[in-house]
Amino acid sequence: MKKIIEEGRDPSEIIVGDLMSSPLISISPDTKIQEAIEIMIHKGIKYVPKADEDNPDQVKGISSNTDVFNLDISKAELN
After folding, report:
1. d(C-alpha 57, C-alpha 65), whole Å
2. Are 63 and 75 in contact (CB under 8 A)?
3. Strand (E) positions, the chain?
4. DSSP assignment of 37-55, as one string?
5. What is d(CA 34, CA 59) in angstroms, rounded to the nearest whole number?
6. Would you place residue 4 in the very low, low, confident or very high pLDDT band (cuts 50, 70, 90)?
7. Contact 48, 31 (CB under 8 A)
8. Which residues contact 58 (CB under 8 A, 6 or more apart)?
9. Which of 4, 6, 27, 62 is geometrically suited to a Cys-Cys bond with 31, CB 3.0 to 4.6 A?
10. Alpha-carbon distance 69 to 50, whole Å?
11. For 52-61, how does the pLDDT look when each residue is reduced to its tens digit (9 = 90+)?
């Protein structure tokens, strides 16, 4: 939103599509935490939708960087 305001655009005229990243980056519900972290870091994103593998248009949930970074990965298998 900051970028929109800096460009001098009227925030009341903005649609969600103006704020979305493109192309959409998603993961499957079976994606390992390590891979999700790598995707978020390398793509510079804070949220990643979890899409159904059989129906990629169906979002099953959203993971945030806070969700994955707060996990106790010392107990997780990373390989």
Report:
1. 22
2. no
3. 47-51, 59-64
4. HHHHHHHT-SEEEEE-SS-
5. 20
6. confident
7. no
8. 51, 52
9. 27
10. 17
11. 888 878 888 9
| Span 11-28, pLDDT tens digits | 788 888 877 778 888 999
Contacts 24+ apart (CB under 8 A), 61-65: 61/29, 63/27, 63/36, 65/40
Burial call 4-32: b when 16+ CB within 10 Å, e when fewer: eeeeeeeeeeeeeeeeeeeeeebbeeeee
Look up residue 67 and give its two tokens. 């969700």
The tokens describing 19, both together, are 């704020």
Structure token digits, residue 72: 């106790």
